[in-house]
Design goal:
The protein has two domains: 38 residues, no CATH class; 135 residues, OmpA-like domain (60s Ribosomal Protein L30, Chain: A). It starts with a strand and ends with a strand. The chain has three helices and seven strands, in the order ββββαβαβαβ. The protein is elongated, with a radius of gyration of 33 Å.
């Protein structure tokens, strides 16, 4: 049995304990103990230099994973900002300076009218409700269903939109990145969709007007080979249809 203790990279102490047994009666059985000092004459292993982390915009996301390395953004948006605060990062926002928009751009109002009577010149125009269609996205941390302040801000805007609506229809799709097992991700995406539904219904949106679906890791929005891409895939997408008189 032995013990080696390194005092420095080159210098140390060695202790050794040995029991010598003989099967001849005239030979002596005994313990032998020894202490030694050693000095390493070779070159010591070079010390690893600390890896420099590059973060040009100082937003806490390394440049290697930052989709917007020159502009400070949010971690949940892979380092990209959300200038208009509509829950869509500027990297995916078609109109980054205009809020509350489908795909990031202003929603077009669709007006329909039915003409009654056989004489169009004398017919009255039936007033139909305006239909608004928009989409929103909220993002989640790794392996989480918790809604952060940014997600709640997006959902609060949805609640506000529905307050004066004559009818509301919201479809929520839950998604994950490709970390973990497929069955786990399927459940996680379902939980994310349901946590969004629960927040909306708790704040006044009729639960009966909300439908959820879950896709796990099967419908990524970005490349899962990087942390930045996986951050964009941990999401719940809301397709919203609102009728206003």
């Amino acid at each position: 049995m032995g013990l080696t203790y390194d005092i420095t990279d080159r210098f140390g102490v060695n202790l050794q304990f040995v029991y010598k047994h003989t099967f001849k009666e005239y030979l002596t059985k005994h313990f032998q103990n020894s202490v030694g000092i050693y000095y390493n004459l070779g070159n010591s292993a070079p010390k690893e230099e600390p890896k420099e982390v590059m973060d040009a915009d100082n937003d806490g996301v390394e440049d290697a994973y930052d989709l917007c390395p020159d502009v400070a953004g949010k971690k949940e948006f892979a380092g990209c900002p959300d200038t208009d605060g509509d829950g869509i990062p500027d990297s995916l926002d078609k109109c980054p300076n205009e809020k509350n928009a489908q795909g990031g751009c202003p929603v077009k109002e669709v007006k329909t009218a039915d003409m009654q009577g056989s004489n169009a010149n004398n017919a009255s125009t039936a007033k139909e409700p305006k239909t608004l269609n928009t989409e929103k996205t909220v993002y989640f941390e790794f392996n989480s269903t918790l809604l952060d302040n940014n997600a709640k801000e997006v959902l609060d805007a949805v609640v506000e939109m529905t307050k004066n609506a004559s009818s509301v229809s919201i479809h929520i799709d839950g998604h994950t990145d490709n970390s973990g097992k497929e069955t786990f991700n399927k459940t996680l995406s379902s939980d994310r969709a349901n946590i969004v539904k629960g927040y909306l219904s708790d704040n006044g949106v009729p639960s009966s007007s909300i439908v959820t679906d879950s896709f796990g890791e099967t419908k990524p929005k970005a490349d899962n080979s990087s942390e930045a891409g996986r951050a964009l895939n941990r999401r719940a997408e809301l397709k919203i249809k609102i009728a206003v008189n």
